[in-house]
Amino acid sequence: MEMPDQATALAARQRLLHDCEEMKRMLHGLLDSKGRVAEEIHAIRKLGKSLRGGFALFGLGKSAASQIQAIGRLLAGPRDAVSRFNTWNKLGWVGEPRACTAIAGLLEQQTHSAARRPPPEAIDWCAARVDASCAELLALPENTLAGRCSGGLDKLRRKLRKRFKDLDHGREEDFHEARKALKAWLGALGFLPDRSPAADSSPLKLADWLGDENDLATLGIWLDEHGFTGRFEPGLWQCLSAERQRLQDKTAAESKCLRKELKASWMTGAE
Questions:
Q1: What is the CA radius of gyration of the chain?
Q2: Is there a contact between 60 and 136 (Cβ–Cβ < 8 Å)?
Q3: Over the range 257-268, which residues count as b (16 or more CB within 10 Å of their CB) and which as e?
Q4: pTM for the full model?
Q5: If we measure between CA atoms, which residue out of 1, 5, 2 comes closest to residue 143?
Q6: Cα–Cα–Cα angle for 37, 224, 76, rounded to 5 degrees
Q7: Are 156 and 185 in contact (CB under 8 A)?
Q8: Dist CA 190 CA 56 (whole Å)
Q9: Of 62, 130, 182, 195, which is least surrounded by CB within 10 A?
Q10: Of the candidates 73, 41, 114, 80, which has an alpha carbon nearest to the alpha carbon of residue 219?
Q11: Distance, CA of 258 to CA of 266 (rounded, Å)
Q12: Closest CA to 189 of 201, 176, 174
């Protein structure tokens, strides 16, 4: 894989700025949402993940990207409620009827908050975070952009390989860290022409599996916090653990293949 040149870096910066303006438009659109708040927030947070990768590409992962991350956290509550409900339905556990109906009822009830629009003050705060990120990007000297992109891309690649290697230990936290590293790397590639992985590629497949595993982990935290612990519902936790283990095994095996590709071909000579 060739390193980004000046023209590529300038084009990536322009696209990143354009997508930031799109995020601001989407944020203000929440104030006039027609009953589709959850879907619109999902789209905003998805775009935010891409933006964070773009800022990391320019070496702004700990500054500008953190501004975008704050937006996702502010908007997380309503969308997370919908995600938990969808994850519960996908899990398909059929156990003690009263537990099933209680869990489903609570999760569905909490999704109703997803239809509520954030207050205008919150939207203004989010828009300010986008402006601050753009200001950081525009403050970078143009003659440094190509070098920043090359260094940023290599740093993201190295971090991703390390996170994938950590999966060999099988620790739960390693899957969460691998998911974050993969999202950042894919986000960065999306701003470089002809480098985004194909729809059926290994990286996107891994991202889906890691996302599903994380959703199950999040559901588990919710269940525990609401009293549906392993003491009272052992069958549920056995089902949850088995599904997480299945996804972890698939992810760990597939990541080894991608790890080799990252080393051997996508960044040849960067080791």
A1: 20
A2: yes
A3: ebbeebeeeebe
A4: 0.88
A5: 5
A6: 20
A7: yes
A8: 12
A9: 62
A10: 80
A11: 10
A12: 201
Q: For residues 45 and 29, give the distance between their C-alpha atoms in angstroms, rounded to a whole number.
A: 14
Length of the chain: 271
Q: Count CA atoms within 13 Å of residue 38 on its CB side.
A: 16
What's the 3-state SS for the chain? Answer: CCCCCHHHHHHHHHHHHHHHHHHHHHHHHHHHCCCCHHHHHHHHHHHHHHHHHHHHHCCCCCCHHHHHHHHHHHCHHHHHHHHHHHHHHHHCCCCCHHHHHHHHHHHHHHHHHHHCCCCHHHHHHHHHHHHHHHHHHHCCCHHHHHHHHHHHHHHHHHHHHHHHHHHHHCCHHHHHHHHHHHHHHHHHHCCCCCCCCCCCCHHHHHHHHHHHHHHHHHHHHHHHHCCCCCCCCHHHHHHHHHHHHHHHHHHHHHHHHHHHHHHHHHCCCCC
Residue indicated by tokens 């773009």: 54
**Residue 267: what are its φ and ψ, rounded to 5°?**
-135, 50
| CB-based contacts of 266, cutoff 8 Å, min separation 6 | 1, 157
Token pair, residue 64, equals 């500008």
